[in-house]
Specification:
Distance between the termini: 42 Å
Structural class: mainly alpha
Strand content: under 5%
Shape: globular
Helix content: 55-70%
Number of strands: 0
Largest sheet: none
Amino acid sequence: MSMKWIVALLSVFLWLPAISSAQDSSRGELLYTTHCIACHNSKIHWRDNKIATDWTSLNTQVRHWQQVTGLGWNDADIVEVAHYLNVLHYHYSEPGK
């Protein structure tokens, strides 16, 4: 097998999660349920004194807590988790959506 085919196959496998069906878990959901759910339940997102009050502050909180816990997420991971939480709990207006 030529190097060109190997690269092509690897590209396809790396993009499969992005083209999976809508029923599959999102990356944000997978990251959240893997790393965050142990300390966060739905009550934390519905409390009266929530810190996240808009899209920007939600992203800020996700960034802050992934840093505190040493997860090392990149910007795309942070946005994915914030988006997942926003769809599930907050319903803030997201830029570009």
